[in-house]
Amino acid sequence: MNESLTMFGMPKTLFDKIWEAHLVANVQGGIDVLYIDRHFIHEVTSPQAFTGLEQRGIPVFRPKQTIATADHNVPTQNQHLPIQEELSRFQVDRLTENCAKFGVELYGLGHAYQGIVHVIGPELGITQPGMTIVCGDSHTSTHGAFGCIAFGIGTSQVEQVLATQCLLQEKPKQMRINVDGVLPKGVSAKDIILYIIAQLTAAGGTGYFVEYAGSAIRALSMEARMTICNMSIEMGARGGLIAPDETTIRYVQGRKFAPEGEAWDRAAAYWQTLYSDAEAVFDQEYHFRAEDIGPMLTYGTNPGMGIEVSGHIPNEDGKNFVKALEYMGLQPGEQLIGKTVNHVFIGSCTNSRIEDLRLVAAFIKGKQKAPNVHAMIVPGSKLVEAQAKAEQLDVIFRDAGFDFREPGCSACLGMNEDKIPRGEYCVSTSNRNFEGRQGQGARTILASPLMAAATAIAGRIVDVREELN
Q: Residue 314 to residues 192, 255, 300, 335: CA-CA distances in angstroms?
């Protein structure tokens, strides 16, 4: 019996350990009252929640455990000027007013810590292993990379957490996905998760919380692990998490809000107990070989419609499949290699961190984007932007003809000014390729930062493996 079994009495998964540590009570019908350590909010899903509190005369129960930022609707140019778009300006202004009224810390436009909500939490050390974390945003699963139970919630639940610091939840089933081996050259974390979703489908994780494990996962950096967990939602899962290890601990140490001194020693010792016991049982388990994964692209209108860049679009029955290909202007049996693309977007909570930008800069340095391509790079936060400038990555981007902008969700979801024109293709490092996601009629092809960079330089889709020295 290993040390963890002795401590906990029976074999448990990592998810079990965190859930049980935050269990306040079990209520009738198998619903648990779960304590929430960190609550992130932004301008889109919080206004109604604050209105509900105000109407009932209820304060925010623990305001110091809620962190706010403006990200979804903000422009990515001229952020020092008033927001021009009326709805965006209204929502950001309401966030500012509500945070001031209820005593919530806000990293708004102009603040050194402003950025995409799922980028700023980890880089500031607010996100720490073993926590429960929620936000009115489905990609809260990103924080699971640190060994957290992190998931998105609806607006009524945002109000519930603000009022009580707790949440009513039914415990989900558990899945483990193992990826072992060594990734081929030109293949990254984005390709891993797109490959998994293509294998399991966009509904393959429905009802589950997923733990990612295996030697290929352990070999990833923290920023790469965040990319994996970020897109757990795209296969229908409630969230995803990765057991913390030395890579996790090194990443957190020394960050702005990380523990210090004796508190750090206690925290790090606890984090080292956060793993699934060898005998722990999962409801479902899958195994994949890293060597089988190549650079991935989506061809349809959900993230499960993916193929390796050198592959052919399949031929499937069903109205939804036919409708997706009609929307994308593609045919069964067609290859994506060689397809002309006029837009490239590098950003979003999936791929806008400094490692992503470094990877792109290293590839495009000394090159020029194709004349037919508008290539946009949007850093995930002011800290990422500042680091990129300190390393002169912004100079490399601009010299290559790329448009380097200010932080925000940008063209990931088209709730701001950064939209893709109707009928045009965009190779995007974001997480969703739904109809109209990047603008009405826009055609989104999801890819890794490296594939996106290669597309921008060539002006068409290419196999990045053939472009690497």
A: 20, 46, 11, 10
The helix (run of H) or strand (run of E) holding residue 150 is: strand 149-152
CATH number of domain containing 348: 3.30.499.10
pLDDT, tens digit, 9 for 90 and up, residues 275-331 = 999 999 999 999 999 999 999 999 999 999 999 999 999 999 899 999 999 999 999
- Which residues lie below 8 Å from residue 126, measured CB to CB, with a gap of 6+? 38, 67, 120, 257
d(CA 287, CA 294): 16
Q: Cβ distance 126 to 119 under 8 Å?
A: no
Q: Residue 330 carries which side chain, given as an amino acid letter? A: L
Q: What is the pLDDT of residues 155-181, one digit of tens each?
A: 999 999 999 999 999 999 999 999 999
Measured CA to CA, the distance from residue 300 to residue 426 in angstroms comes to 13
309/274 same-domain check: no
Q: Report yes or no: 443 and 329 within 8 Å, Cβ to Cβ.
A: yes
End-to-end CA distance of the chain: 49
Residue 376 · residue 403 · CB < 8 Å: yes
- Collapse the DSSP code of 362 into the 3-class scheme (helix H, G, I; strand E, B; otherwise coil) and give the result: helix
Q: Both tokens of residue 139?
A: 């990609």
Q: Are residues 138 and 235 in the same domain?
A: yes
Check residue 125 and report its DSSP letter.
Answer: T
Residue with tokens 């090194």: 250
Domain of 21 in residue numbering reads as: 7-286
For residues 323 and 225, membership in a common domain is answered with no
Provide the token pair at 290: 């890293």
Predicted TM-score (pTM) of this structure: 0.96
Cα–Cα distance, 89 to 307 (Å, whole number): 40
Q: Which residues, listed in sequence order, are joined to residue 156 by a DSSP beta bridge?
A: none
Q: Is the dihedral of CA 164, 36, 139, 359 positive or negative?
A: positive
